[in-house]
Amino acid sequence: MKALIAFTARSLQTDMPRPFGASIVHTRTGKTLLHALNNVMGEFDPSSHAEVRAIRRATKRLKNVSLAGYTLYTTCEPCPMCMSAALWAHVDRVVYGATIEDANRHFDQIHIPATEVEARSDIRCVVAGPFLRDECYALFTHPNRLRAVRRWYSRKRK
């Protein structure tokens, strides 16, 4: 998780700071397969969340629709779309940092906890978090990120 936080924090120094990061890590060995950032604004795609992007890239890299044997780490509790993607990919577990409530202070959210999505599924997955919550929440409150959010919301509402 610390490596993911550092990876995600690097984006805060760019013109497009993004606090949502995800990693796919081999559950047994701990070896990181890849990291991804959300890119909703860059791709003009509301489904371009970090978790979904990581899952898509990982399954392509492995040439397998299953990520059984892998863990998804994410800087924020997965939204229902992302948690569903994790379940469909059969990841072993999901470990998250900040909570949906934390993210809601800065972004619109769907208030369904990842644990509830998992509980309502036929597919089992361990959901653990919040983990390193303060460090992950700091990604949302970085001054560059707050400026970017204000710019985005001012354009969105015009």
Q: What is the averaged pLDDT score?
A: 93
How many β-strand runs?
A: 5
Beta-strand content: 15-25%
Class from secondary-structure proportions: alpha/beta
Radius of gyration: 15 Å
Low-confidence stretches: none
| Biggest sheet features | 5 strands, mixed
Compressed to H and E, one letter per element, the order equals: HEEHHEHEHHEHH
How does this structure look, described?
The chain has 158 residues and is of the alpha/beta class. It contains 8 helices and 5 strands, in the order αββααβαβααβαα. The protein has helices at residues 2-10, 40-43, 50-62, 80-88, 100-104, 114-119, 133-141, 143-156; strands at residues 21-26, 32-37, 70-76, 93-98, 126-128. A 5-stranded mixed β-sheet has the order 2-1-3-4-5, sandwiched between helices. Strand 3, helix 4 (80-88) and strand 4 form a beta-alpha-beta unit. The longest helix has 14 residues, at 143-156. It is globular, with a radius of gyration of 15 Å. The relative contact order is 0.17.
SSE blueprint and pairings:
Layout: H1 2-10, E1 21-26, E2 32-37, H2 40-43, H3 50-62, E3 70-76, H4 80-88, E4 93-98, H5 100-104, H6 114-119, E5 126-128, H7 133-141, H8 143-156
Parallel strand pairs: 3-4, 4-5
Antiparallel strand pairs: 1-2, 1-3
Helix pairs in contact: 3-4
